[in-house]
Amino acid sequence: MLTNIKNLLLKPNKVLQSIYIIVFRVLLDYMYCNIVSPLYSYIGMTAEQSTFYYVVSWIMVICYILMMFTIIDVEKNGAVVLSIILICSAVPTTTIVAFLGHNLEFAVLNVLYWFFMVAYYKHKGRKIVLGKNSIKRSSLLIYIVFIIFALVLLFICVAYTGIHVSFNLYDVYGTRAAFKSDNLPTILQYLFSACIIVFPVIIVYGLNKKKRIIALAATICQLLAFFTDGRKSTIFVLIATIFGYYFVHNLTARMIPTIMMGITIIGFIEKICIGTENFINLVARRLFLVTAYLQYSYFDFFSNNVKDYFRQSIVGRLGFSSPYTKNIPTLIGENYYINNSYANNGLFADAYSNFGVLGVVILPILIVCALKLLDRVCEGLTSGICMGIIIVSAFTLLSSSFFTVMLTHGFLLGCIIIYLVPRFSYQHDEVVENEGMKGRYDDKKSITKYS
């Protein structure tokens, strides 16, 4: 009985996948109209009825369900990230189209953006080659990596920011204000950003190897990273890593609609049972509806203003000046969100704000290249082991520009660390480790099957 329930939730067929996504969308509609809009209509999150756009929004949902079908059976970490950002960004955007984004061009371009993203990922191009020689991996290497990053974290806390111990997720802005990342040397910024990817890997490695001391030390370091800069994603990654280790083991794209539907249901359970909306405000509203609302805000702003062409990002470092004197997220925050807010966003918003319609075709190529790189460096490791980089990659892609994710948020450095981690997988009794695995990691004698 329990096995059947688990399969229905974690290994649903395509019919159930469709039902879960539809339920997710219905719950988002109710949340937007009855909880979010009444509180935030003053910043533009209004609920306007339009039969035409409501029908358009459900046509979009059908398109996204069909796209999801093409990647649910791909057992790679890149597919997991792609399914997360598809469900977290594209589906909530249909709610915005239904009740706010009354612009057909926005709806069409959004569907095209995700169509190209999925099509590029499914295209079987040349495999990314990282080197012809096999990498010598060992437990000693992961301990060295842990010590280096722990020392970097401690040095940043002592020399630059200090530690602000607080578990109040509503009060992280004081911590963020105290964290002056601009004062950090560039190399320390990159290493610190990679910390929240590295420590979860070490937590899982320590638990698997029965080395609980290193697992505990990595957990403390992850908390310390949160106390340093106040990023909520740091805590969420820690929770997801530990939960995934004990209950999920191997996260797949097939599970994502169930998980996202479950997140919204948890919020409603809290509201019904104890009358509070903490989970809805901290997770569901911020992760789903604010992200979708900002997608439309970026589109609306740059439909009437000059595109940036990454002049506030990598192109600006080559000497090209942006036409905007303020950061784009600050401009969007001032015009569409709360005053003095930093309304950063990624994916479709990043594509359209930089290249307009052309960005819908170009930017998915860059993201897919990053996902293919992730697939390559994670070969031989389950998604449960790579939970840190999966969650951080998805979260930062949702909320930041592509090149910011690659560099400032530590994606590329995280990929290097993951590539150097000894290959191991979950097993009930013991962990089998291959310290000299070759190119394709197809030696079945040296790698356990996922349990």
Describe this structure in words.
This protein is an all-alpha fold and about 450 residues long. The chain has helices at about 1-10, 15-40, 50-70, 75-100, 105-120, 140-160, 175-180, 185-210, 210-230, 230-250, 255-275, 280-305, 330-335, 350-355, 360-375, 385-400, 400-410, 410-420. α8 (about 185-210) packs parallel to α10. It is globular, with a radius of gyration of 22 Å. The relative contact order is 0.13.
What's the topology here?
Layout: H1 2-10, H2 14-40, H3 51-69, H4 77-99, H5 104-122, H6 139-161, H7 173-178, H8 186-208, H9 212-229, H10 232-248, H11 256-274, H12 278-303, H13 328-336, H14 348-355, H15 359-377, H16 387-399, H17 402-408, H18 411-420
Helix pairs in contact: 2-4, 2-11, 2-12, 3-4, 3-5, 4-5, 4-12, 4-15, 4-16, 5-15, 6-8, 6-9, 8-9, 8-10, 8-16, 8-18, 9-10, 10-16, 11-12, 12-14, 14-15, 15-18
